[in-house]
Structures are given as structure tokens and as C-alpha cells.
Design goal:
- It is built from no helices and 11 strands.
- By secondary structure, it is mainly beta.
Length: 128
Amino acid sequence: QVQLVESGGGLVQAGGSLRLSCAASGRTFSRAVMGWFRQAPGEEREFVAAISQTGGSTYYADSVKGRFTISRDNTKNMVYLQMNSLKPEDTAVYYCAADFGYRGTFYLSRGRDDYNYWGQGTQVTVSS
């Protein structure tokens, strides 16, 4: 059993920053690729960022590259998403997810079906 719990969402003005956190249960956190996804009303859940098991490799959606930074601390079973220069179009529910598959050293999936466990989501609202 794996449980993921997000925190850190809230209301922020355009241009501001937020830092999301995801706390993971279990003892095999370091074996999982971790990802962040988001879902706006009426939209499909979309990929935001992913990080490899040891944190040495990251992958970002083009829409957030240069503004968002994903990181992890395996000693604390935590993954983070630092969001800077926020835009109104970043408004969504943000989810952390864990991928325990084996798809190669340089493979960081952006596919929803590749992630085995999901958090409950945290709301991020960016006002104009």
C-alpha cells in the first residue's frame, strides 16, 4: 500500500510563487519515478513534471519549463514542486503520482496510465 498526500496549494496572484509538497508512505519510495500532474475544470489530467528515482534526471512539460522545478528528498519520502512566475492558466488541481514501472534509465513517463499511485490533489488558483 502506498499513500500520497499533497499540500501547499492556495490562491496566488499572477507572477507569484507556490511550493507544493507530497508526502509518501511506504519504504520503497526511492524505487519510484515521481510525477506531478494537473487538471483544470473540463480538461484532461495533464503531465507537468517527473523526476527519476535518485533525483538525477527531470522532465518537464513545455508549458512549465523554466518556471517550475521538481525535486525529491528520499530520506524524508517527499517530493516537491516549486512553481514560480505563475500564470492564470496554471490554475488547476495538482496531483502527485508514483510510477513503480521499469522502463529504462532515461525514461520518465508523461503517461497517466504509467503511474500506479495518486494523491488526492491540491487546488492551485492563480488570479489576474
